[in-house]
Amino acid sequence: MRHEWRVRRTRRGDFQLRIPAQEREVLRGLPGQLRALLGTDDPALERLFPPAYPDDPDRDAEYAEMVRADLLAGRLSSLQVMEATLEATRLDEEQLTAWLGALNDLRLVLGTRLDVTEELYDAPIAEDDPNAPAHTLYLYLGWLQEQVVEALAAGLDPAGSEG
């Protein structure tokens, strides 16, 4: 069976995207949905902004005040890059790294909403499960995220420097 790839590094050092129209359509609405959610206190965001001091609410609030705005700005920037380049067939490393951040954030929020655990996927999801489409999306985002990581890693030598 031929390995289906969606992202790969080119000889020029940029990255080719080969995402079919149907998959791009699924991805198109996700950044806006997450952006809207980021403006709320939805519990699904906890993995994006985990408490630094869970046993000390005062220190945790102080920490959140110091870093949350920067974390939020980075997440919003990644979502903006993903939206702006969704129809692209080539990305540079900075753009693909932004995609990686956006995919990771989308997956974390969806996984939190679905209460995903490693044991969850020991058995197939039933087709009549009302969350089956969301589970399928979660798996797809993980697969695409893996493709992005592999493409980015293709430019590293084993010692960890760019090659």
Description:
- With 163 residues, this protein is mostly helical.
- The chain has one domain.
- Helices cover 55% and strands 5% of the residues.
- It contains five helices and three strands, in the order ββαααβαα.
- The chain has a three-stranded antiparallel sheet with strand order 1-2-3.
- Strand 1 and strand 2 form a beta hairpin.
- Helix 3 crosses helix 4.
- The two termini are 30 Å apart.
- The model has no long low-confidence stretch (mean pLDDT 91).
Number of helices: 5
Distance between the termini: 30 Å
Q: Output the strand order for the largest sheet.
A: 1-2-3
Class based on secondary structure composition and strand pairing: mainly alpha
Q: Per DSSP, what share of the residues sits in E-state strands of 2 or more residues?
A: under 5%
